[in-house]
Every structure is written in structure tokens, then in C-alpha cells.
Write a structure and sequence with these properties.
Elements: H1 2-40, H2 56-66, H3 77-93, E1 104-106, E2 109-111, H4 121-142, H5 146-169, H6 171-177, H7 182-192, H8 201-214, H9 226-229, H10 239-265, E3 272-274, E4 278-280, H11 290-310, H12 318-347
Helix pairs in contact: 1-2, 1-10, 2-10, 3-4, 3-10, 4-5, 5-8, 5-12, 6-12, 8-10, 8-12, 10-11
Keywords: Cell membrane, Membrane, NAD, Quinone, Translocase, Transmembrane, Transmembrane helix, Ubiquinone
Enzyme class: translocase
Organism: Thermocrinis minervae
């Protein structure tokens, strides 16, 4: 009975910590993006609220909370509110299978810094990613607006296309690790002393392009297209509801998919990898904190890379996005998968 209570307490603590970090960091990533965009465009960005604008996200949150919550006259109120929940919950649940570091011990209790280490963790990620599109489709339908409906249908078409690509892209690392468990995939890379990005560069590039498409980032942001669709499927949302949609899609989803990319291709919490030689840890002086800092650094670099692309590339047309997925990326995933199946036994012989 005592062990059961201890396990429940550990799980509750993990849930609270993950939610607090994800939602808190997600809110402040809005400031990071505005600063990155400002420097790319040679301007200072937010500077007024707090030192160098550090309190700007709090001011934005207060503004959204105090705004009047309007509802479209001819919309479906139940589906209108349900859409927000269906967009937020799956994106957050992905972090349940993200391993943030190695196992450690506290007061004799062994703790894995992962909410649930299931042997089909990646299948859970794909299932949750597919569910998120239903929230966006409902948002467009329930708003009873042609602009919202067009934006949601564009998003649904893009997600269907790139879900297939991203699924086949990650099969390469899965074959190399021989497991669908995210924790096991990291452990295999550490045991084999090799990040899978060195063996799967094509899969990584395809994964990153698919991640941009699924999160509505440039050059695949035609579903929002502020200039022509006035933010697409969120056009009829106001106040805090309007703020939560971009928070989920542009920040929480990008963070979760970046974390999965680190797990699949960059050895999770492992330090710098020299191919077929081993690892080098310049942060050895941090001791037990070093693995967690490495994981954070990798996720941060991938997120900044996404921001750099977002503020430098032009937008694709919807037909170009679909053709790129089905005619270029999907065949490349088949080539990569076949090559991996043939050469993986040779590499690990």
C-alpha cells in the first residue's frame, strides 16, 4: 500500500512539473520569438514592459484574460469550446512519453524523468498528433465562418499529408533501435555511442520539414495566412481562447516535436557525439545536472532553428505544399526506409 501511494505521489509530482514547465515556457517563448524576429529585422522588439521586455508575456496574458469573450451568433457553442480542448490536450500529452534525462534515485526511490515509459511510446505520439487536427477542424466548422472553415480545411489537408511523411521518416531510427519506447531509443544511442542523425540525415531533414508543416510554421503556414485568411480557423475566437490556439500550435507543439526529434536523432540527454568514437561532455562540471542541460540545449537549438526559418522564408501555396509531401518527401522516406533496412545489420555487425 505504501509503495502504491509513493508511486502515485511521484506521478502527480511529474504531472505538475511537466505542465508547469511546458505551459510556463510556452508563454515565454512568445517573447523569444518576438525578440528573434526583431533582431532578424534589425529592430529592438519588446522593450517597455520590464527589463528588455521580460514582463511582456504577462502583460499580453492579462490583456487577453480581460478581453470580452464573444461568440459567433450562428456558431455551435459546444463544438466551439470543445475544439480548444481537443487542440490543447493532445499537444500537451505528448510530453508524457518524452524522457528528459537518465534515471536517478531520491531517498532510495528510483525515478525515471518520464511520465510513462510505455513500449509503444512513439505510437502514442502519432495518435495524439493525429487527434489534434480534429480540434482545428471543429474550430473552423463550429465558428460558422467561411474564412475559419477554409483555414481549418487547409490545415486538415496539410496534416493528413505530412503525418504520413513524418511516420515513415521516424521508422529509420525505430529500426536502428529496435524499439518504439522513447526511453529505449535514447539508451540504444548511448550504448552504441552514436546519434542516429549521423545514420539518418535524410530522415531528420524530412522530419523537420514535416514538423514545420504540422505546426503551421513558414513556409507551410498557408492555413493561417494572416494577409489573406486573417489567421484562418481562429478568426472567430477572441480573448484568451484566441491566445491559446497559437500558444498550442506554434509553441507547445513545436516544443514537443523538437523534444521527440532530440530523442530520435540526437541521443536525448547524451552530450556531444563524435561519430563511431563516443561522447564529449564540456558540461561535466555540472555533474548530475549535465544530462538535463544537454537535453534543454538541444531542444532550444531546434526551436531557434524553426524561428529562423519562420522569419526568413516565403510562404508556399497550398498546392505546392501538398505536392511536396506526396511527390517528393514521401518517396524519399521509402528510399531511406529501404536503405536503413538493408544497411542496419551491416552497421551493427
Amino acid at each position: 500500500m505504501d509503495s502504491l501511494l509513493i508511486n502515485l505521489a511521484v506521478i502527480l509530482i511529474k504531472i505538475v512539473v511537466i505542465l508547469a514547465i511546458v505551459l510556463g515556457v510556452g508563454a515565454y517563448l512568445t517573447l523569444v520569438e518576438r525578440k528573434v524576429a526583431a533582431h532578424i529585422q534589425r529592430r529592438p522588439g519588446p522593450m517597455v514592459v520590464g527589463w528588455h521586455g521580460l514582463l511582456q508575456p504577462l502583460a499580453d496574458g492579462l490583456k487577453l484574460i480581460t478581453k470580452e469573450d464573444l461568440f459567433p451568433r450562428y456558431g455551435n457553442k459546444f463544438l466551439y469550446n470543445l475544439a480548444l480542448i481537443m487542440a490543447l490536450v493532445p499537444a500537451t500529452l505528448v510530453f508524457a512519453v518524452v524522457p528528459f534525462g537518465p534515471e536517478f534515485e531520491v531517498f532510495g526511490i528510483k525515478i525515471k524523468p518520464i511520465l510513462t515509459d510505455v513500449n509503444v511510446g512513439l505510437l502514442l505520439v502519432f495518435a495524439l498528433g493525429s487527434m489534434a487536427v480534429y480540434g482545428i477542424a471543429l474550430a473552423g466548422w463550429a465558428s460558422n465562418s467561411k474564412y475559419a472553415l477554409i483555414g481549418s480545411m487547409r490545415k486538415a489537408g496539410i496534416v493528413v499529408s505530412y503525418e504520413v511523411v513524418i511516420t515513415f521518416a521516424v521508422l529509420g531510427p525505430i529500426i536502428l533501435a529496435g524499439s518504439l519506447s522513447t526511453y529505449e531509443i535514447v539508451q540504444k544511442q548511448i550504448e552504441q555511442k552514436l546519434w542516429y542523425v549521423w545514420l539518418q540525415p535524410l530522415a531528420f531533414v524530412l522530419y523537420m520539414f514535416s514538423m514545420l508543416a504540422e505546426t503551421g510554421r513558414v513556409p507551410f503556414d498557408v492555413q493561417e495566412a494572416e494577409a489573406e485568411l486573417v489567421t484562418g480557423f481562429t478568426v472567430e475566437y477572441g480573448g484568451m481562447k484566441f491566445g491559446l490556439f497559437p500558444l498550442v500550435e506554434w509553441y507547445v507543439e513545436v516544443l514537443s516535436l523538437s523534444a521527440i526529434a532530440v530523442v530520435l536523432f540526437f541521443g536525448g540527454w547524451s552530450p556531444i557525439n563524435i561519430p563511431f568514437v563516443g561522447f564529449v561532455d564540456p558540461l561535466f562540471f555540472l555533474g548530475p545536472l549535465s544530462p538535463y542541460v544537454w537535453f534543454l540545449l538541444k531542444v532550444t537549438l531546434l526551436f531557434l532553428f524553426v524561428l529562423w526559418l519562420h522569419w526568413t522564408l516565403p510562404r508556399y501555396r497550398i498546392d505546392q505544399i501538398a505536392e511536396t509531401a506526396w511527390k517528393i518527401m514521401l518517396p524519399l522516406t521509402f528510399v531511406n526506409l529501404a536503405a536503413t533496412a538493408v544497411f542496419a545489420p551491416i552497421v551493427w555487425r
